[in-house]
Specification:
With 452 residues, the protein is of the alpha/beta class. It folds into 2 domains: 10-112, no CATH class; 124-155 and 249-451, 3-Layer(aba) Sandwich (Rossmann fold), CATH 3.40.50. The protein is built from 17 helices and 12 strands. The strands form 3 sheets. A 7-stranded parallel beta sheet has the order 3-2-1-7-8-9-10, sandwiched between helices. A 3-stranded antiparallel beta sheet has the order 5-4-6. Strands 11-12 form a two-stranded antiparallel sheet. Helix 6 links the parallel strand 1 (127-131) and strand 2. Helix 6 (133-143) runs parallel beside helix 8 (176-185), helix 6 (133-143) crosses helix 17 and helix 13 packs parallel to helix 15. The N and C termini lie far apart (59 Å).
């Protein structure tokens, strides 16, 4: 098997010496053992030097091999340097042989990155992210560089495009958002991601027209697993080496409904996304059970992140599941709501920050969100011809009557500088991790104070 070429750079060297990989401690043990062996060898050589002379006739070779023609300090320097070189080279080759089965022959990823992902990221906080659409996959692309203990709890209420057709024909929950999140978290080759996102040409009239490969694979996997949708998604996570896991909010196909401020009712996620002046949304059938994996992930999480994503059509459908909302409210995790950086034509047109939070609390109740994260950079480039604007920072929501029940507001630069309507994955993930570290530290400190 051809191993990838070694690339040595400053960043690679720094990564090797970062704490958390779990390699340096064992190299220290090996070095201690080598040092003891070296001391034993030195004592033996010292005794040999005292009792034997190698300068006589026929012993010239031993005289040269034992370096007796050199001063003692120079002998030690040469032997020590050779020992260090052999130790480093042998250790490096041994690690490469052990890690060879985990490295792709075509990959140019440094070995230290593979070890870092498997060891350091596995010790990161357990994060459950609830939502769907582009916003959720954007966050996942950034957050997977901080921890591999990620669970994306994804809405299945979509009824448009390929997902809607498969849902109508096969009776399965929507798979489009699940596919996008799997691609975002997958450690597979970029070509595999492109394959999963490939959409067959056509407008739906042909049997495959408009369908994506990933949607068809998810539908097929559910069928292979005995029409068990949740198990099908689990197996897709495994097959594509997802860093963390992507799980459906529920294994049942649900339909989203909305009532407008004028009393008009609309059915279907696609139609609701285009509507304005939404008063309330709900699901049918009612009291649908949440997915087992989704509930478990929320119960075990250190941080629960709500959003970003379309407020009524991506975030709300998961939180409208009674079991899921109860799990979120009862969780001891830090609960963070990430507000969108821009309004959406239709469902949140004209909304500011306070309106987003008020709508969330109107549907789920108040007092359970700990922190609200919003963007405070407004000079990013705005795409032309898009009827949307940056979310204004009005705070707090009118619905919050007392300061004690108000979530803490955190402002940060989380927008993509080249697109004012999207989050930047790296900046958003860094801001989320900063909120978690500050909030979790504060909770640990308060617990210590109470115990004292």
């Amino acid at each position: 098997m051809r191993l990838p070429k070694i690339r040595v750079s400053g960043s690679v060297v720094r990564r090797w010496i970062e704490p958390g990989i779990g390699l340096k401690r064992w190299l220290l043990v090996v070095f201690a053992g080598e040092a003891l062996l070296a001391i034993a060898g030195a004592l033996l050589l010292r005794q040999v030097y005292r009792e034997y002379e190698f300068s006589g006739p026929g012993q010239s070779l031993l005289y040269v091999v034992t370096l007796q023609f050199m001063p003692y300090w120079l002998r030690g320097l040469i032997v020590g340097g050779g020992g260090v070189g052999l130790f480093v080279y042998g250790s490096w080759r041994a690690v490469r042989v052990l890690m060879g089965p985990f490295l792709s022959a075509e990959s140019d990823q440094p070995l230290v990155e593979v070890i870092y992902q498997k060891r350091f990221l596995s010790r990161g906080p357990k994060i459950a992210v609830i939502g769907g659409g582009t916003g959720l996959s954007t966050l996942l692309r950034g957050i997977k560089d901080h921890t591999s203990n990620i669970t994306a709890v994804v809405t299945v209420a979509d009824d448009g495009g390929s997902s809607g057709r498969l849902r109508e024909e096969l009776g399965i929950p929507a798979v489009g958002d699940i596919r996008n999140c799997i691609v975002a978290l997958a450690d597979s080759e970029p070509l595999m991601g492109e394959l999963l996102q490939y959409r067959f040409p056509g407008d739906g009239e042909a049997s495959l027209g408009g369908h994506t490969i990933g949607n068809l694979l998810l539908a097929a996997m559910a069928s292979v697993q005995g029409d068990d949708f949740e198990e099908g998604v689990r197996q897709m996570n495994r097959v594509l080496a997802v860093r963390g896991q992507v799980v459906p909010a529920t294994g049942t196909a649900v339909t989203l409904h909305a009532r407008m401020l004028d009393g008009t009712e609309i059915t279907g996620q696609s139609a609701i996304a285009r509507s304005t002046r939404i008063d309330r949304v709900w699901l049918t059938p009612e009291n649908v059970s949440a997915g087992d994996d989704a509930r478990r992930a929320i119960e075990e999480a250190d941080l629960v992140v709500i959003g970003p994503g379309s407020l009524y059509t991506s975030i709300m459908p998961s939180l409208l599941l009674p079991e899921l909302l109860s799990a979120v409210r009862a969780s001891a995790a830090v609960k963070l709501f990430v507000c969108n950086v821009a309004t959406q034509k239709g469902e949140t047109q004209g909304y500011d920050l306070a309106d987003h939070v008020a709508a969330l609390e109107r549907h789920t109740g108040a007092g359970w969100v700990d922190v609200v994260l919003a963007n405070n950079r407004f000079d990013a480039r705005r795409p032309g011809g898009y009827a949307a604007e940056a979310v204004k920072l009005r705070w707090p929501p009118v619905a919050i009557s007392s300061a004690s029940s108000s979530p803490r507001l955190v402002l940060d630069d989380v927008v993509d500088p080249d697109n004012a309507h999207h989050h930047d994955p790296a900046r958003l993930a860094a801001a989320v991790m900063h909120v978690y570290e500050r909030e979790s530290f504060g909770r640990r400190r308060s617990r210590v104070s109470r115990s004292a």
